[in-house]
Amino acid sequence: MKLVKAIIRPSKLPDVLRALYQAKITGLTVSNVRGHGGEVKVVETYRGTTAKMELKDKIMIDIGVSDEFVETAIEVICDSAHTGHVGDGKIFVQPVERIIRVRTREEDMAAVTPVR
């Protein structure tokens, strides 16, 4: 089981959600976040340290998937979030030790959506 965390442009959220649903990946959480990566607008130097000062609005999507769906999720997100410009986002894949579905108390693979 893995946790796929994708940070994308807000404008690409409808495209990414549509593509994920078409790939049968439906269990997810969407959060509004702020951050910066390669798209630098304001850079300041303070006491010898350079800092990026402007944070951009982004969307973070968290998806708990079975190992079989990790590559599918990555491909779907990359294809649907891509613009070709700096700031398209990042995807992080993390191992998950345990998952519990609160409603049924199903655990691990039984609690992950989807399972093939």
Could you please describe the fold and organization of this structure?
This protein has 116 residues and is an alpha+beta fold. 19% of the residues lie in helices and 34% in strands. The protein contains two helices and six strands, in the order E-H-E-E-E-E-H-E. The strands form two sheets. The chain has a four-stranded antiparallel sheet with strand order 2-5-1-6, covered by helices on one side. It has a two-stranded antiparallel sheet with strand order 3-4. Strand 3 and strand 4 form a beta hairpin. Helix 1 packs antiparallel against helix 2. The longest helix is centred in the middle third of the chain and has 12 residues. The chain is elongated, with a radius of gyration of 17 Å.
List key phrases describing it.
116 residues; alpha+beta; 6 strands; 19% helix; elongated
Secondary-structure topology with pairs:
Blueprint: E1 2-8, H1 13-22, E2 28-35, E3 43-46, E4 49-52, E5 56-65, H2 70-81, E6 89-95
Antiparallel strand pairs: 1-5, 1-6, 2-5, 3-4
Helix pairs in contact: 1-2
